[in-house]
């Protein structure tokens, strides 16, 4: 069953959240080794992407990628940088090409150098404080953050730069030019799972991955007897966390707190205990959870152009779409986290083949909206 492979991933994600919180102080949102970001860069005359990967404070990787067109060959430039931090800015101390550029690509290499300096320096001018309080934010996700008016010649002069801690490395979500056009915008963020993970070096955009996606006849789900998927977990001696969603007999129990809908979908109920010193609803807490759940993992790239994120009232709701150029699978992923105590979230996760989701959107949305989480 195709979706059975995702059971381990759900449990791994929950464990990774706990590790993420435990590994860093709550007054900051530092980058973890292996985190990366890709931007769609519209300053070029062809579809182009610039990616940055963080290894540590002195080592970064940068990549330029442009898909082939009818008249232009694919272009792929990948380089490693060693840097030093001086007066709040990066200074290049060395570089090595992973994929060497052609002679005509010298301008692109110099451009990447400039971006590394400029994006680092401009981020360094912002105060080290939460950039978005998502509990009180009313703006759509891709408009949420701190806007800074600046001047950036390569993007036409006057620009607005939008910053958000959910985005790793430079915290830059997008750059808007003088005409109001998004000229440099996050395409995806991610986290490498090991030194053997090549998903940064082999990233391709959704526009290219979609060309190899096999046609799949969407399933239609017939009405079945209503049934709740539920989980009750003892919390200490005198309390229990109770979670449930409204579903039907089409769902089958596949493991502890995991259910499957044939080979179309998988649902899971989990809990997330926060470490001492953190609190549900705290801006840094919400930003950490969002960054983890909207990150690409193991070639399943989270398409930020299809991302819908909301937080408020102690809840975090994320509706995302991932594409995998290796397996040619397009997945819609819905997650709802609900704070039931100052240090505890309940978590409902639903992953569905996107064609099945679109053909039965009301069915799946109703299920996600029915999620209930409380302490007893």
Tell me what you see in this structure:
The protein is of the alpha+beta class and 376 residues long. Helix content is 18%, strand content 42%. It has six helices and 21 strands. The protein has helices at 5-22, 106-124, 206-209, 283-293, 354-359, 361-369; strands at 35-41, 49-56, 59-66, 75-86, 89-99, 146-152, 157-163, 172-176, 182-191, 226-235, 239-248, 252-255, 258-261, 265-273, 295-296, 301-302, 308-312, 315-324, 329-341, 344-353, 372-375. Strands 1, 2, 3, 4, 5, 6, 7, 8, 9 and 15 form a ten-stranded mixed β-sheet that branches. Strands 12, 13, 14, 16, 17, 18, 19 and 20 form an eight-stranded antiparallel β-sheet that branches. Strand 7 and strand 8 form a beta hairpin. It starts with a helix and ends with a strand. 38% of the residues are buried. The model is unreliable at 1-28 (pLDDT under 50).
| Net shape | globular
The fraction of residues assigned to DSSP E strands is: 35-45%
Mean pLDDT: 88
- Secondary structure category: alpha+beta
Give short descriptive properties of this protein.
8-stranded antiparallel β-sheet, 376 residues, globular, alpha+beta, 10-stranded mixed β-sheet
Topology of this protein?
Layout: H1 5-22, E1 35-41, E2 49-56, E3 59-66, E4 75-86, E5 89-99, H2 106-124, E6 146-152, E7 157-163, E8 172-176, E9 182-191, H3 206-209, E10 226-235, E11 239-248, E12 252-255, E13 258-261, E14 265-273, H4 283-293, E15 295-296, E16 301-302, E17 308-312, E18 315-324, E19 329-341, E20 344-353, H5 354-359, H6 361-369, E21 372-375
Parallel strand pairs: 9-15
Antiparallel strand pairs: 1-2, 1-9, 2-3, 3-4, 4-5, 6-7, 7-8, 8-9, 10-11, 11-21, 12-13, 13-14, 14-20, 16-18, 17-18, 18-19, 19-20
């Amino acid at each position: 069953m195709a979706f059975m492979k995702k059971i381990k991933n759900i449990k791994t994600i929950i464990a990774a959240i706990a590790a993420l919180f435990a590994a860093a102080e709550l007054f900051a949102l530092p980058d973890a080794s292996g985190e990366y970001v890709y931007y769609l860069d519209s300053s070029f005359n062809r579809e182009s992407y610039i990616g940055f990967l963080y290894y540590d404070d002195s080592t970064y990787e940068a990549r330029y990628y442009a898909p082939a067109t009818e008249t232009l060959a694919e272009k792929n430039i990948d380089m490693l940088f060693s840097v030093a931090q001086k007066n709040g800015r990066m200074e290049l101390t060395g570089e090595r090409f992973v994929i060497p550029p052609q002679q005509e690509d010298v301008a692109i290499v110099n451009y990447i150098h400039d971006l590394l300096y400029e994006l680092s320096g401009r981020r360094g001018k912002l105060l080290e404080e939460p950039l978005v309080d998502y509990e009180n934010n009313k703006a759509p996700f891709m408009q949420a953050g701190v806007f800074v008016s600046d001047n950036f010649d390569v993007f036409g002069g006057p620009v607005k730069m939008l910053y958000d801690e959910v985005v790793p490395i430079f915290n830059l979500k997008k750059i808007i030019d003088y005409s109001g056009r998004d000229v440099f915008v996050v395409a995806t963020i991610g986290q490498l799972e090991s030194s053997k993970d090549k998903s940064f070096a082999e990233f391709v955009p959704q526009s290219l991955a979609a060309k190899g996606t096999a046609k799949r006849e969407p399933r239609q789900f017939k009405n079945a007897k209503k049934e709740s998927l539920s989980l009750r977990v003892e919390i200490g001696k005198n309390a229990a966390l109770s979670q449930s969603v409204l579903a039907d007999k089409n769902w089958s129990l596949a493991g502890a707190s995991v259910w499957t809908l044939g080979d179309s979908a998988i649902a899971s109920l989990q809990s997330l205990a926060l470490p001492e010193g953190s609190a549900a609803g705290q801006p840094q807490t919400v930003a950490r959870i969002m960054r983890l759940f909207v990150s690409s993992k193991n070639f399943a790239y989270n398409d930020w152009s299809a991302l819908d994120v909301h937080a408020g009232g102690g809840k975090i709701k994320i509706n995302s779409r991932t594409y995998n150029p290796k397996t040619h699978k397009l997945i819609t992923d819905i997650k709802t986290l609900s704070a039931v105590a100052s240090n505890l979230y309940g978590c409902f996760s639903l992953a569905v083949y996107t064609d099945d989701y679109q053909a039965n959107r009301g069915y799946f949305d109703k299920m996600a909206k029915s999620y209930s989480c409380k302490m007893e």
